[in-house]
Design a protein that fits this description.
alpha/beta, Rossmann fold, seven-stranded mixed β-sheet, 13 helices, binds S-adenosylmethionine
Length: about 375
């Protein structure tokens, strides 16, 4: 980063590609939807336990934090409402609660696309449900809701986004754009410290906002290994870094800008998540699990078909998935280069990813924590 450029807060620039077009998050979030489906049994178990411990209140307040836009935002909510309905149906005299649903994301998120689909969403739901949908713009690293107002919090594939790239990283991570195997130890530690600070703030805020006994299911893009530079965590970014470095060496993008570009993400191990939850002290860990999801999931039904085996086919879909997530960050950092440059970045990236997918095991690791707020939590 050049000396005059201030560090950018992620909240000001991060958002997934908006709308419903070819490069939008809405069109390229099958991977994330698969992860939501994979973690459904854990979410359902948490809802069942919530019901057992406190019976559903007349007004059930649930929040999805980092909801983004597109089908996944309301997919989570619809699953949750139907499951509560099923639980209620299992019992005599159980009246469906009124659902107060809060969809949170950063202010740059395309809330309009979600809002436009609310009416058809409500029409598809059983008319016996009363559902009130609210958009809540703001960072989940700060307070978003009144004290003691939420019963259940869900967050999937969002909490690995940090509130900022630590300053030490910008100076010391040239040649890389994330925590790579060639990053200095200081860079890895700085990223970790930022994760500790951010996740600590997140837990502190939710501890105020959830009622006692309230529950959270949090899914991270994470890692199994305790090695912070392990390949499983940052590999997807390492490959993007190869494409960007090629383009910088050919003068297509600015080398200095590339030297100061870093992805504000930390993919924690289960041990690291556990350590922060214990340190903050307000939540008990009900479950802490790890699972894997293949990069090929980005290809959905096409996986393994001829279409997927086309040159760059498999990598093309993964590249689109990452483009939907990272394009606004790239554009904000590299500035005016035009659509052609971004197209070229992701064309090269798709080729690199395809080659790796054909020759290596390529998986994302999910770390899932199911937590409940202790009846007596530490002073806020
Ligand atoms: C990959 S998307 C996941 C969206 C959705 N949960 C899903 O599973 O498809 C991550 C979302 O987290 C949001 N996000 C990142 N940091 C955030 C923060 N500090 N506060 C609120 N949202 C945040 C991003 O803007 C983005 O929309």
């Amino acid at each position: 980063m050049d000396k005059e450029t201030p560090l950018t807060e992620v909240a000001e620039v991060l958002h997934m590609n908006s709308g419903t077009g070819g490069t939008s998050y809405a069109t390229n979030s099958l991977l994330q939807q698969t992860v939501i489906r994979m973690t459904r049994p854990i979410t359902e178990e948490a809802i069942r336990k919530l019901h057992t411990s406190m019976s559903f209140p007349a007004k059930l307040a649930v929040a999805d934090l980092g909801c983004s836009s597109g089908p996944n935002a309301l997919f989570v909510v619809s699953d949750l409402i139907k499951f509560v309905g099923r639980l209620c149906d299992e019992q005599a005299h159980c009246k469906y609660p009124e659902f107060h649903v809060f969809l949170n994301d950063l202010p740059g998120n395309d809330f309009n696309t979600i809002f436009r689909s609310v009416q058809s969403f409500q029409e598809r739901l059983n008319s016996e449900y009363s559902v009130f949908i609210n958009g809540v713009p703001g960072s989940f690293y700060g307070r978003l809701f009144p004290a003691d107002s939420l019963h259940f919090v869900h967050s999937s594939y969002s909490l690995h986004w940090l509130s900022r790239v630590p300053e030490q990283v910008v100076e010391a991570n040239k040649g890389n754009i994330h925590m790579a195997r060639s990053s200095p130890e200081g860079v890895l530690v700085a990223y970790y410290r930022q994760f500790q600070s951010d996740f600590g703030s997140f837990l502190k805020c939710r501890a105020v906002e959830l009622v006692a006994g309230g529950r959270m299911v949090l899914t991270y893009l994470g890692r199994r290994s305790e090695e912070r530079d392990s390949r499983e965590a940052g590999y997807i970014w390492e490959l993007l870094s190869i494409a960007l470095n090629q383009m910088a060496s050919q003068g297509i993008i600015d080398q200095e800008k590339l030297d100061s570009f870093n992805i504000p993400q930390y993919m924690p191990s289960p041990t690291e998540v556990e350590a922060e939850v214990k340190r903050q002290g307000s939540f008990a860990i009900d479950r802490l699990e790890v699972s894997d999801v293949s990069w090929a999931v980005c290809n959905g039904e096409l996986s393994g078909t001829d279409e997927c085996n086309m040159e760059n086919g498999a990598g093309y879909n993964v590249a689109n998935c990452i483009r939907a997530v990272a394009e606004p960050l790239l554009v904000s950092h590299f500035g005016a280069g035009g659509v052609e440059v971004i197209d070229e970045v992701f064309r090269r990236y798709a080729a690199i990813v395809s080659e790796r997918m054909a020759n290596e095991k390529t998986e994302f690791v999910n770390v899932i924590a199911s937590l409940s707020k202790k009846l007596a939590s530490p002073a806020h």
